[in-house]
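Practice problem 4.
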């Protein structure tokens, strides 16, 4: 069973949000809409329009056809500069032990 176009777009947007380390609020600000509007589109209550899809694709620096193709193609097309840097554990350097020290 294949996903509908609407499901592919919602999945692609969710994957891009995750890959870029962005929130719905971040995407909403970039698109000039409210977070609630992005949430409704992502939940399926409202649909992503073609104009929305063009704006989302432009925001992430991908071709709109990559977005429409689904989450795998969309995230593969995401430029490296737009990808989040996974959290790295801080390396704690302990002071050297000084023999006979205080």
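Answer key:
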């Amino acid at each position: 069973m294949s996903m509908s176009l609407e499901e592919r777009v919602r999945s692609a947007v969710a994957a891009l949000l995750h890959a870029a380390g962005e929130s719905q609020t971040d995407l909403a600000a970039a698109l000039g809409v409210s977070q609630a509007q992005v949430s409704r589109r992502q939940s399926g209550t409202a649909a992503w329009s073609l104009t929305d899809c063009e704006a989302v694709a432009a925001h992430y620096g991908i071709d709109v056809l990559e977005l429409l193709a689904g989450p795998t193609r969309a995230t593969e097309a995401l430029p490296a500069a737009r990808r989040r840097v996974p959290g790295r554990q801080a390396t704690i350097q302990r002071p050297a032990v000084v023999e006979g020290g205080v």
